[in-house]
Design a protein that fits this description.
mainly alpha, 12 helices, about 60% helix
């Protein structure tokens, strides 16, 4: 197995093999063959041996830590995530609705359109109503059913479920969903902002600040989220 020289000696060969196995599953062409975010986080958690150090330290990268409040050009969402203001994040996600799903391609068979789509969309609507009403447990249940149906791929739904998990103090699950949203839509900074919020909630402040910086950098090249 080829390993980045920066990572040599940082993990056992068995752990590296397991990482490759997880990554290869995530890269499967068929969505149904990919693991969901929760199972990925569950599989990765035992492999993280030094949870007190940021990933930059583990990789031997020296970088000055910048307080989140001093990161320049934070959008309103970025500012809310930096302060872990979950109420403000909720209000912003409500305003943007499903704009993050634009450009995400879904391949639906005729059978899915005729026998599954309406039920799936009804479940999504129920989840959105629960999310709006701040009934986050119900929202998680509805969004989970939608995601596991495999009918459509929605980065916005992962972000909404992420915030719902944060609201009920399940930061590890929230981080997994934010990461999945970014995988689906790499050019959408909102996934990164929610990752930062989850990392702050987990006490991983250094990683959270670096993620905020990445989100700001991504924002600087896009119009979609400059005012979000």
């Amino acid at each position: 197995m080829l390993t980045d020289s920066c990572l040599e000696g940082q993990f056992a060969n068995d752990d590296g093999t397991e990482l490759v196995r997880i990554a290869s599953r995530c890269l499967q062409y068929e969505p149904r063959e990919r693991p969901n975010a929760k199972s990925v986080v569950t599989a990765l958690t035992p492999l993280q041996k030094q949870t007190d150090n940021s990933s930059l330290v583990l990789m031997g990268i020296s970088k000055e830590s910048t307080p989140a409040t001093q990161i320049l050009n934070l959008s309103p969402l970025g500012d809310a995530c930096s302060r872990l203001d979950l109420t403000a994040i909720h209000e912003i996600l409500e305003k943007i609705e499903y704009s993050g799903d634009e450009g995400v391609t879904d391949e639906l068979s005729f059978q899915m359109w005729t026998s599954q789509l309406q039920d799936t969309l009804n479940g999504k609507k129920h989840g959105d109503n629960a999310f709006r009403a701040k009934d986050f447990t119900t929202a998680i249940e509805c969004y989970t059913n939608f995601i596991e149906s495999g009918t459509m791929v929605s980065p916005t739904m992962y972000v909404r479920r992420c915030l719902s998990y944060l609201m009920i103090n399940k930061a590890q699950e929230a981080l997994g969903d934010a990461m999945q949203a970014q995988v689906i839509h790499p050019d959408w900074s909102i996934g990164l902002y929610l990752q930062a919020a989850a990392l702050f909630s987990l006490g991983m402040d250094n990683d959270a600040r670096e993620t905020l910086k990445d989100a700001v950098l991504l924002d600087s090249g896009t119009e979609e989220t400059k005012h979000v």
